[in-house]
Automatic annotation (TrEMBL):
TM regions (residue ranges): 241-259, 280-298, 318-337, 349-369, 375-394, 415-443, 449-472
Transmembrane in keyword set: yes
A Pfam family annotated for this UniProt entry: ANAPC3
Keyword Cell membrane (UniProt): no
Annotated protein name in UniProt: Tetratricopeptide repeat protein
Keywords recorded for this protein, A-Z: Membrane, Transmembrane, Transmembrane helix
Length: 475
């Protein structure tokens, strides 16, 4: 009997010895050595629960959901299984299912719920859960991310420690909060010790920081290093393919329209001729240049970063003013260059009331687009009152002058070209702008006036300004 019992007992003891070794490797961050040692424990005892738990955690940290799932199946009913299952769901991008799990009470369960709420963009609730957690590395990084998402990067700095991951986050927060000099010094010292993913993140931040300071030499060098570890052309196409596709369609329609124009045999003298498409594009380029110059100045003043318009978090503060200045510049261009024609472009003053149905229609379109865009990986408009005021000021140009110019030259192609021009000339989500542009052209023809469309943007902006911030994340 002793011999019979000695085999299983010896195997269990051997498995426990391997597990303790595995745990030491795991605590030192040597995940490959830990995995190999834990697998030796399973050779001795295939059902050794502590080793299966640790192997599942190692697979989750290595972002290998299939292997983690296999270990969880072998683990069966275990006190830690729901926590590991929650981590697996987070890795698979299914945070809503984590909140449905019956997790045991404790700090890790609170942390996992906070991570799930972060994934659902319910940042205020996530922060309430994360505050007061034991200051583990995971919890400290979560708090820093949440404060950044809530627009308070300075407060996030207070929670960070001295590990390479936290110092990388600190460098990013320093840059985003308007302290690029400190960020550059910190990230430069970190580069040699960072893993590949961390190095990539550091190079992205350094490239923006150098170029935003006007240091083209170091900015170009950082960009060259970044190109060695990241597919920059692929990333560019991933972000700009809707705009590029729209541009190709626009160019094709212009070429088609030009090919249908017959040579003039007589010259007709017109008292107040419409500007041609070239003048239209000149108005756009000058207005865009003015708006970009203002955004550069504002970014430099607020964040010591000339590229704030293209920098995460900072662009949320700069973009609204950019849209407003762009709209003002376009309206001023019409006021100066098309003063006689402007009353006709605006239409009957009494039609401004049309905006009270156009505004809700715009909000409905934004909401429906907000439901679909996470599946398509697309962005949305900045939901700020200044943005909507800027778009309202653009209406006389895009729904008033542009269709008239295109109709005179390209006839039946005018509506399509005007809608495409709006999506191309206004920085933002191209697909959404194309749909809104086409819809507003139809509404303008129905109302017979541009004033109602401009009022619609104002109404939509005022309503959104009354919404709580968490509601806006649904758009």
């Amino acid at each position: 009997m002793g011999v019979l019992l000695g085999g299983p007992l010896a195997s269990a003891q051997e498995a426990q010895t391997y597990y303790l070794r595995c745990l030491r490797f795991y605590q030192q961050g040597a995940l490959e050595s830990a995995q190999t040692t834990c697998e030796l424990a399973l050779v001795s005892d295939p059902n050794h629960a502590p080793s299966l738990r640790l192997l599942a955690r190692i697979a989750l940290e290595g972002k290998d959901p299939k292997q983690a799932e296999a270990f969880l199946e072998r683990l069966g009913k275990d006190p830690e299984a729901p926590l590991l299952q929650a981590r697996l769901l987070l890795l698979k991008g299914r945070p809503e299912e984590v909140l449905k799990l019956d997790l045991p009470s404790g700090p890790e369960a609170r942390l996992l719920k906070a991570l799930a709420l972060e994934g659902l963009k319910r940042y205020e609730e996530a922060l309430a859960l994360a505050q007061g957690l034991p200051p583990t590395l995971e919890a400290r990084l979560l708090l820093a991310r949440l404060y950044l998402a809530l627009g308070k990067p300075q407060e996030g700095l207070a929670f960070l420690g001295s590990t390479p991951e936290e110092r990388l986050m600190e460098g990013r927060l320093l840059f985003l909060s308007g302290r690029p000099g400190e960020a550059i010094s910190l990230l430069e010292s970190l580069l040699p010790v960072l893993p590949p993913e961390g190095r990539k993140e550091a190079l992205r931040t350094l490239t923006l920081a150098y170029l935003g300071q006007g240091d083209l030499a170091r900015g170009s060098a950082a960009l060259s290093q970044l190109a060695q570890v990241e597919n920059l052309p692929g990333r560019f196409l991933e972000r700009t393919w809707p705009w590029l596709l729209t541009f190709l369609v626009f160019l094709g329609l212009v070429l088609l329209g030009e090919s249908r124009i017959e040579p003039l045999r007589t010259v007709e003298v017109v008292e107040d001729p419409l500007p041609g498409p070239g003048s239209l594009y000149l108005y756009l380029l000058l207005s865009l240049f003015l708006a970009l110059a203002f955004a550069l100045f504002l970014g430099k003043a607020l964040f010591a970063n000339a590229l704030a318009l293209f920098t995460p978090y900072q662009q949320d503060q700069v973009l609204p003013s950019f849209y407003l200045v762009y709209g003002l510049a376009l309206f001023t261009a019409l006021l100066l260059g098309q003063r006689r024609r402007l009353p006709g472009l605006l239409g009957d003053g009494r039609t401004w009331v049309e905006g009270f149905w156009v505004g809700p229609a715009l909000l409905l379109c934004l909401f429906l687009y907000g439901l679909l865009r996470p599946f398509l990986g697309l962005s949305t408009l900045p939901l700020n009152l200044l943005v909507f005021l800027g778009l309202a000021l653009m209406e006389p140009f895009f729904r008033g002058l542009a269709p008239l110019v295109y109709k005179e030259r390209y006839r039946d192609l005018a509506p399509a070209l005007a809608a495409l021009l709006f999506a191309l000339a206004v920085p933002g989500p191209t697909l959404l702008l194309l749909l809104l542009g086409a819809g507003l052209l139809w509404a303008k023809e129905r109302a017979g006036s541009v004033l109602g469309m401009a009022t619609g943007w104002v109404v939509a902006g005022v309503v959104l300004a009354l919404f709580p911030v968490p509601w806006l994340r649904r758009f």
